[in-house]
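Chapter summary example.
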Amino acid sequence: MRRLSRRGFLGLAAAGAGAAVTVGATGWSQLAGASTGRVLTSAGPLPEPFGVPLPVPPVARPVRTERGADFYEVEQREGRVEILPGRKTAVWGYDGIFPGPTFAARSGRRTVLQVRNSLTVPTVTHLHGGVTPPESDGYPTDLLLPVRCAPGQGPGHGGMAGAHTGRTAVGYRAYEYPLPQRAATLWYHDHRMDFSAPQVWRGLAGFFLIGDEEEDRLPLPRGDRDIPLMLCDRSFEEDGSFRYPAHGHDHDAFPDGVLGDVQLVNGAPWPVLEVSATRYRFRLLNASNARRYRLRLEGEPEDEGGGRGWFVQIGSDGGLLATPRPIHTVDMAPGERCDVVVDFAGFPVGSRIVLRNEAAQGGMRDVMRFHVVRKARDDSRVPARLAASFEKLAPRAAMPVRVFDFRRTEAGEDRQMWTINGRPFSTGTLLASPRLGSVERWRFSSDFHHPVHVHLAQFQVVARGGRSPAAADAGWKDTVDVRPYEVVEVLVRFAGYKGRYMLHCHNLEHEDMAMMGNFQVV
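The structure predicted for these 522 residues follows.
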């Protein structure tokens, strides 16, 4: 396993770690003054905010439908897109675009995604939030080698886990998603061992939306007023190419995580969305490597509509909440999703409303702008009851309890690493063996900001720091923010399939430094 020296790991991170201790004591209110990573400064001039329209990723169409299943084909390839005005950026994208195409699937209907790797590096595709068989879950050593694999290039993959032990394919792989789960906003992204962070940074990510009849019956905003918003930050070279630390010395300078200095929404810098004075549904996704968000709506002061707006939260990682929740702010760690409805009817036509990130500083406090340009008829509403099928879990005395501690660990003289329970990651080591159909109580603790993601299983947060869950913890989750020196308790349901799965930190730099662990559903 690659290790950093004490000087390389702690010296460069000292200021950020010290600030993070304060955040652990006071929560998100002080987050703007804390570091959850290190900013990688762009080499060239940055674009002016609010100068480009918001793009919406295209919805993929199945190439065929047979025997109750939808079959899709997608190609991982390099594309050249205009992210910064007047400059081209080479992206590694699904179908050569960033974000990749949105897949719109149905609960309980099998979806088969045939992926072709036309890049020059191995990839792994993970459906984040999917209840997926282990062979299609995107285990980090289940490599898909490039279609133009060099002669003699085998499945070997050195790295922190040691020898390669995964399922390897060359050129093509079919991922099968039976989707035995509720309607929800999921996403797919690269999950390659040791290289998730740079490959997601370069564009390998997109939305995967699941619908069902329960959601169909609700009078929520639909069509062009149901919009996915992928939030992420990036840095750029002067020629417009992505800037990211090279593996080796440069990469070791960012042990806490890489923060960009350009805010992107659906791949566009600080974009603008023209809206009618009606309700909109926004499917918010934090697809950043390490950046956190505390989102707030603010009318620009010079506008008559200046003031703060409300979100109405209707869904979380795992789908609809039981009832809607009016909230002023949306807190999101990397990997988390939050479905909200915003009613622009309270703003006069002509108003400009800015989506701001209170967890950022300087120009990164702005995310995007909404411009109310017209009135329109609105038949949508947010009903008092959303998910009639929502089941609230309750702790039981006989429930198995497991503890997972995420922190820096000594690894010998002048060496430290990110670990779970003090262990370096190994593909052959299991941290738990829960039974299929069971519910267990898991306790996550941390010395830093670690967004913990559990594959396959979904959970409900029951306690945070010995108190009630935070507002951001509502609903079924697959990712939860564990803050410094805090214990988060969750009830995890293991439904779907037996096999080997993972839990890991979704700060992608931490993940690439092997802050991962295996569990086996038996």
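To summarize the output: The two ends are 29 Å apart (CA to CA).
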